[in-house]
Every structure is written in C-alpha cells, then in structure tokens.
C-alpha cells in the first residue's frame, strides 16, 4: 500500500503562524485552522483576561465537548435507523 502524499502549509491561528502537515487537502487544513482561530477569538471575547495558552486549552476543551455531543447524536441517529430497518 502506497503512503499518501503529505501536504505542508503555513496557517495563522490567533496571531501566530504554524506549519501544518497532513494527508488532507490544503483547503481542509486551512478550514480547520480557520475554525480554531474563530473559536479562540470567540472565547477571548467572553474571557479577555486569559493568556493565549489558557485560551488554547479552553478552546480544545470546548471543541472536544462539541465532538462528544456530535458523536452522541450520531449514535442516536444510527439507533433510530436500525429500528426503522428492523
């Protein structure tokens, strides 16, 4: 099996430049960086005293929370689908 080619880009998140490397498209990686930047700025509005390190952790916590909620919704929808098929 051939290894997927890796894309490398520079992105800006909350005023800092980061190099991203991944097998996803550069458009996807830019979208991810943009969403992280937006979320950090949104949280900063409500918590202006947080330094960027604490802001990044709070952003990660909020993002994982949203991920878990979405996984829960997917599981519920999959269960409903099984019931409808059964």
Q: What is this entry, summarized?
A:
It comes from Lysinibacillus telephonicus. The protein has 86 residues and is α+β, with helices and mostly antiparallel strands.
Description:
This protein is an alpha+beta fold and 86 residues long. It has one domain (7-85). The protein has 2 helices and 2 strands. The protein has a two-stranded antiparallel ribbon. Helix 1 packs across helix 2. The longest helix has 34 residues, at 52-85. The radius of gyration is 18 Å and the shape is flat. The N and C termini lie far apart (38 Å). The mean pLDDT is 95. Belongs to the ZapA family. Type 2 subfamily. Pfam families: ZapA (PF05164). It is found in: Cytoplasm. Homodimer. Interacts with FtsZ. Keywords: Cell cycle, Cell division, Coiled coil, Cytoplasm, Septation.
């Amino acid at each position: 099996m051939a290894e997927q080619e890796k894309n490398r880009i520079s992105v800006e998140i909350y005023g800092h430049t980061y190099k991203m490397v991944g097998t996803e498209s550069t458009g996807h990686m830019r979208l991810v960086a943009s969403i992280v930047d937006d979320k950090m700025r949104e949280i900063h509005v409500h918590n202006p005293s947080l330094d960027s390190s604490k802001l990044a952790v709070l952003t990660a916590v909020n993002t994982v929370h949203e991920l878990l909620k979405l996984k829960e919704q997917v599981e519920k929808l999959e269960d409903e689908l099984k019931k409808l098929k059964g």
